[in-house]
Amino acid sequence: MTPRPAAPPPLAVLQHLVNTRELLENHDDLTAPAGLVAWAEAEGLPCPPRPTQADLTRVRRFREALRQLLHRGEGAPAAAAELNGELARTGTRPLLHAGPPGTEFTGDATTPLDVAITRVLATLITASLDGSLSRLKICGAEDCLWAYYDRSPNAASRWCETSVCGARHKMRAYRARQAAAAQPS
Length: 185
Ligand SMILES: [Zn+2]
Hints:
Blueprint: H1 12-18, E1 21-22, E2 27-28, H2 33-43, H3 53-71, H4 76-90, E3 93-96, E4 103-106, H5 112-130, E5 136-138, E6 147-149, H6 162-182
Antiparallel strand pairs: 1-2, 3-4, 5-6
Bound molecules: zinc ion.
Zinc ion (ZN) binds at residues 139, 141, 144, 146, 159-160, 165.
């Protein structure tokens, strides 16, 4: 498969999380505890040594809310509510500090997973505030929904990879037109 555009850090942590599930391949890295540990290790995030099913469910819900938020479609309001719930649950909030200008995020984390989610939320909010989040998109193909980084000059791309999903979309549209044309009028 053609490589799909990777986001630069720190956006990459968001992209990697969304793409732990690959719809086209019907594959999900976060169905087993070992998968969650591997994901957290790869991102340098803390993780419970033995994640529970509740941990896995929580991260998968968080991931799908992130996907829907970035998709900016009809699922976005519910996704925002879900993510706001995690903001409240983890107590994630900005923290001013003395010294060089800057704001960091803190939280009321009591578990490694809370810390990990706080860090991902902090990345999401920072990227939203500085505008860089607008280039992290979800592929417009409903059976793909891959998170990709839009490198096009005017940030107007719709597909994770034009030669893959864009071409599939064009083919479907072509077939639909052919079918419509074949209908007796
Ligand atoms: Zn795609």
